Amino acid sequence: MTHNNPGQLKNFLNPDIIEAGCDEAGRGCLAGPVYAAAVILPKDFYHPLLNDSKQLTASQREKLRPIIESEAIAWSVVAVSAQEIDELNILRASITGMHRAIAKLKVRPQSLLIDGNRFYKYEEIPHTCVVKGDAKFASIAAASILAKTHRDEYMLKLAAEYPQYGWEKNMAYPTKQHRQAIAEFGVTPYHRMSFRLIDDEPTLF
Predict the structure, then answer these.
(1) Less CB within 10 Å around the terminal CB: N or C of the chain?
(2) pLDDT tens-place string over residues 139-150
(3) Which of these, 99, 96, 90, 24, lies nearest to 54 by C-alpha position?
């Protein structure tokens, strides 16, 4: 039986094994790396704010990040560059990032909970893909928060270097302002050249 957090999040799929939750941030962005995180939480971990990072404000995510990093049994975050995204494609780059994050964990998980519906097997560790997993399992939610906060921190540094693109606000997502800036100023070394960077049609983001 799955133990429920007082909120909506489940603490684990299997109570008897070490599970790591994995997620990424920045997959739909036009520039910058995609970040992937893997987190192993204590089975009884609870924080009232913990949720899918997209449901939280930036200040809530920043508040949760040090709590997750100090209370997790193990965690890791890795970045996969725009160049690598262009070489691999974004799906492969995201999964490669998750593999690297899992490899960096100081405790080896016995099972993986993956946000989304696609994953390539990592070594001999069994995995379960969970669509919208960051709103269902605490460890995936924690991974989503670490990936997002680490990526945002990096994009703020790049925004200072390339102020014309508004990355401090849009984090390189395909906003109208970002696309207009690309049309006006061209691309940076951080743009993903395999993505459609300029688009006259309305975007769905």
Answers:
(1) N
(2) 999 999 999 999
(3) 24
Cα distance between residue 68 and residue 75, in whole Å: 8
| Helix (H) or strand (E) run with residue 80 in it | strand 74-80
Residue tagged 């390189």 (tokens): 172
Q: Which domain holds residue 168?
A: 19-185
Strands 111-115, 74-80: pairing kind: unpaired
Strand partners, 128: 113
Dist. CA 11–CA 47, nearest whole Å = 11
Tell me which residue of 62, 56, 72 sits closest to 105, measured CA to CA: 72
For residue 199, being part of any structural domain is answered with no
Flag whether the pTM goes above 0.85.
yes
The CATH number that applies at residue 47 is 3.30.420.10
